[in-house]
Amino acid sequence: MDPERREVFMRYLAYGGVDVGPKMFTGVDEQELQKLDSEQVLIAKGQANIRQECTKLTVDFNTVVKGYLTSYFPYFFNPETEDMVKLATVTIRNFLSYLLCHEVCPEYKENIDEARRSCDIAAKELWQNQEFATSSPGDFNKACSTLFGGFFYDVNVEENNWNNRNNGNFLMRNDVARKVVKFAMAGSGTDAMALRFQTLANQNTLHSTLVPDIHGFEVITVFPPTPEIREFYRQHAPDLNPVGRMVGKAYRDPGKPCYDLSAEERLLWETGTASMPDFQFFLEENLLKLCYPKMKVITPVWELNCGFNFFEDVHTVYSSIYTVLCNDLMLGYKQLVDLTGKEQDDAEEIEESNGNGVEKNEITL
């Protein structure tokens, strides 16, 4: 097994509660091995084992796979190529297939099948997330940020040339930003949205506000630009990228600290009954191709008073099967030891008073 694959696999085992650390004082010579049966030999020579205190934990292959691939692997290994993503998902999937083929734990067959499907989903979505994070926010969102408030608002960029827009450091001039927004409204906006935008623009009352108490948005539906929209751009604005539309909803990351909400507000969010209007985004076609339902984007979301939204500065993109577990917090954990020896003395006194000289075998976490 090559080093990268081994590291990914060992981290997966450790994330799932398997001890893969070095074994102390467990050297076994050949003469001792000959005295053991086959199962004892495997245990003696094995590199992994499950600690006694972990045997009471719930066994769920699918949840561990989703947690590892969606909330630990992307940010610990930071895969820079699609091959690195496939290396992780294929390695774990092959391990799960081995468990099924050899009937290692037949009582978990359905759960392991679900875990293999999660590997297939992650193999496709994780790299799309990486591409979206590096390619966003796109021309339209950058134009809105330049005109209406945000990271690019009121920045002096008069020396920039629109022909250099593929440069990662490119900043829009205000006249270019206005053109990008107007053509998006005319091509992909609804009639009501375009009319309200024009009315507010003529009155010079267009303004945006940052949507509070959310971490980002979750994709609901994607509407790529139609052939008519592409033709409209080709005839009237060949220097711009055709824009489509995306609908999203407010999202709060369960892996981040909670916002300070009242008990009623928190209950509404936890039960999914909180009333939040859908977000209306406009995105270029190359970005829309990377979006899919239930994709989570962690980014500031702004709302214009004409009825649509924009975002900027994408921090993180999560998969549709994004799962947050506490497993990674226990990696490298060591049982606490009282260096004063007081606890040990107390424990000995309790055992002595237990009666009949019987040791207590109960183990607690």
UniProtKB/TrEMBL annotation:
One Pfam family linked to the record: Arb1
**CC per GO annotation:** ARC complex
Which InterPro entries does this entry report, sorted A to Z?
A: Arb1
Instruction: Write out the GO biological process terms.
Output: regulatory ncRNA-mediated gene silencing
Identify this protein by name.
Argonaute complex, subunit Arb1
Taxonomic lineage of the native organism: Eukaryota, Fungi, Dikarya, Ascomycota, Pezizomycotina
